[in-house]
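Hi U.,

Before I forget, here's the chain from the pilot set. I'm dumping it here mostly so it's searchable later in email.
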Amino acid sequence: MSIVERALKRLQQSGQPPAQSREPRAEPMARATAPHAASREAPARKFTGDPGKTVHVDFEALRRSGLLPPEHQQRELAHQYRTLKRPILKFAFGGDPSAEESRTASPRTLMVTSALPGEGKTFTSLNLALSLALEKDHNVILVDGDAPKPHVSHVLNVGAAPGLLDLLANPEMRVESVVLPTDVRGLYVLPIGRRAESATELLASARMRQVIGELEQLDRQSLVLLDSPPILLTSEAQVLGSLFGQVVLVVRAGVTPQQAVTDALAIIGEGPRVGIVLNQALHDNSVGSYYGYGYGDNFTGAAQTEQQ
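Structure:
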């Protein structure tokens, strides 16, 4: 029985709706120090981007849009995301080098998705990327892969910039030309790019795998984090899951039908390492709701927020 199957079984046997689940008591995982296998084969490449294209991250605007928590909850959320990201980093950079050859996708690639719309996946993508950017030894490239609703590009005011869809449509375009540095140290963004009627086909094309590989090569100590469309809503999301080494599935407590979670996990399959993040699970000792917690040994921790 897989980790995901055990997670679902625990949820089914709890006898309570997800919103009543309690935060698991899990110690944060130790910081990974072993480099990824690829970094042993070549010197680490540091990507800095074009400073003339630096994107300003307006935290107040993000907070007003509901993608960051209120200031009085920011410290708690930051603490919880530190716990949440540790297993991700450990798997990405502290894995067994002998197992690398058996993987179809790099553990340094991470897709954040949900079964259905409105589960909180863009909130997760953004806050997880900001937390990962705090790491002294690693950078993160936040990729907007949600062509129907490119929230990441919109809230960062890069909706008009060339990006992912342009890369997919033009094999001659270099990824370095469209990955933008931000004024948050360690955080880079790849916008969705210019809208195209063939966006679904572009995201499901063989070129997408090539682009992900090129993004990885920009910096061998970086993570590539993609904000994906909901996996049951669009066909391209189903294809994207097979291209990433790690998948975070966001589930909204008490709202997401359990069958939708089961169907989404079946589509993702056994290839990537999968973690389930439970959004807005109630916590007994605090007013408000909690964002996230993971099942099994993939992702643990919770992040408090009042966002919907």
